[in-house]
Amino acid sequence: MESLTECRQIKNMREFIDIFVRLILALPRPAKRAFVVLVDIAMCVLSVWLAFYLRLGEFLNFFDGRISPLVVSVVMAVPIFTISGLYRAIFRFSGWPALLIVTRTILAYGVLYSLVFTVITVEGIPRTIGLIQPILLLIFIGITRVLASIWLGGRHLYILEKTSLVKVLVYGAGSTGIQLVNAIGNNQEIKVVGFLDDDRRLHGQVLNGKPIFCPDELDKLIKKHRLSEVLLAMPSLTRVRRSEILSKLRNSRISVRTVPRVADLIRGDVGVDELRELDLNELAGREAVVPDHKLLYQSVNRKVVMVLGSGGSIGSELCRQIISCGPKSLLLVDHDEYALYKIHSELESLSLDFKFKVMPLLASVQDSSRMLDIMKAFRPHVVYHAAAYKHVPLVEHNMSEGVKNNIFGTLRAAQAAIKNGVGNFVLISTDKAVRPTNVMGATKRVAEMILQALAVKETRTKLSIVRFGNVLDSSGSVVPKFRNQIKNGGPVTVTHPEVRRYFMTIPEAAQLVIQAGAMAKGGEVFVLDMGEPVRIYDLARRMIELSGKTIRDSDHSDGDIEIRFSGLRPGEKLYEELLIGNNILSTDHPRISKASEEFIGLDILSAKLEQMENALNSNEVVTIYAILQSMIEGYLPPSNPVDWITQENTL
């Protein structure tokens, strides 16, 4: 009963405070200032009254003729406070800087007030009142400002009901961690309990009023303070070191978020208080490939650059990287109106700063005449071809469209580039083109062979291919998919417990494409050293554990989220490869290799493509499968294409 009574008292107190705060906030600005002046006058009265008690052991009687200390205090305080700007402050956002201003103001007031009662002697009024009263006034004014900040800012709700606060630890007691804590300072929903840091010399110290703990104490701290999150504030760490820290945090069943990278902070893309969900490039533990800036600038600096498929995840990042290299103009080509509008809007303002043109062009790479017209009109020096259908299941179920776009779109674009004397034409390919088991991979391998075959006879236009693995957070990446599944409570779906993939970041992929174009002589297949492939099941576990959840399986029936195996999708492989053969050559970049791979000669290839186009026009899907099989060694279409087409409605 006592606890119930206390809860009711707190509730009534909170309701009263809420009503009072709303009334104050509803007042016009002049009325609010007048209210604050009245409060300060009341503090002057209280401080004088209490100063007499502390000095003489008796309270001041305002009717015995000793009223001069009070009159002097009010007459001096209000003008000084006004001149110092105390009544211009927005109290709900006041912090330590505001209290410093209050302190300096009352110090100035105290000096003048003490001088008055040092020079003027009044019977019954001790001179020490001139010293005691300013000290008391400083305390009272400071308290009123702190209470105003708490009450008007709404933070009293969390004082009265502390369980609603999200309690966090900041991992990293460096400059970024301090900035983050300062940024969170006015947040009414988050409370920073302290710092975690690996430096043993800092353990037990206090920074910005927050204790610094050893990371080994995390489990104890979680239970003691009911922590909800760890905020990783070390953006300058290598990815390997971040991976080591994240591995430790995974076992503590606490959500982890991270502060943006230093490069993003320096560019002004994000603020230090903008926390992000962890994504796969931080979980994979592989260092990003450092670009060769000479190669980056060589291809695009002061040149007309065209990006086909500029609205896609790879194409749009290509455009962002190209902008930083100072092109003469940038041509954005895409058949998706909204995607084109979005990337053009993003880049248009940047182009004004760098003083070059960004031109949005609606077009499909399958439209030969449109490709010819665009390249004839704008005369690009380099073309990056990122316009492809890349989602394996979708292309598998829409085989004809995949062939039209990935194969004949590449052919039309390359022919237009050759006819208009484009200097460099770079095709963006995929590891799924290596010994393909699906239509998407098969069409991309044929697209590679088209460029290889054309490059044999073509000398004016340098045709090259860049091949890499999965791209993090692209439209087809598992990262956003897993993130949404975790947010929705699961299950997280993985196709197979042993499926493995290579991974790289979108900026890495875009930089590789640009650098490869600079190194191209004609017909090369450039491949990035992507390290070891990553098991998707392990990544799913990491993302679940670092979101503060536990795995639910046969051994842990009380876990939060289940990992469910959905089975390999049509045409999906357990393992991806980057090379067809073993003929690998080095390049000017230590992490980029050049593959020497066999391909079909142009005469035979042209005949095959003509047969395929005829089959497309007559919708002979089985024939298209057969032609793909004849062109690509090892490619096996569905065992019974007719049944596959009927059951899966493949068109």
Instruction: Report the CATH superfamily of the largest domain.
Output: NAD(P)-binding Rossmann-like Domain
What is the CATH top level name of the largest domain?
Answer: Alpha Beta
Mean pLDDT, nearest integer? 77
Q: Tell me, briefly, the overall form.
A: elongated
Number of H/I helices: 24
What are the segments in which pLDDT stays under 50 over at least 5 consecutive residues? 1-11, 90-94, 154-163, 262-275, 644-651
- Based on CA atoms alone, the radius of gyration comes out at 35 Å
CATH architecture of the largest domain: 3-Layer(aba) Sandwich
Question: Could you give the order of strands across the largest sheet?
Answer: 10-9-8-11-12-13-18-23-22
Note the gap between the termini. 72 Å
Tell me what portion of residues adopts beta-strand conformation.
5-15%
Task: Give helix % range.
Answer: 40-55%
Secondary-structure class: alpha/beta
Give the number of DSSP strands: 23
CATH topology of the largest domain: Rossmann fold
Major β-sheet profile: 9 strands, mixed
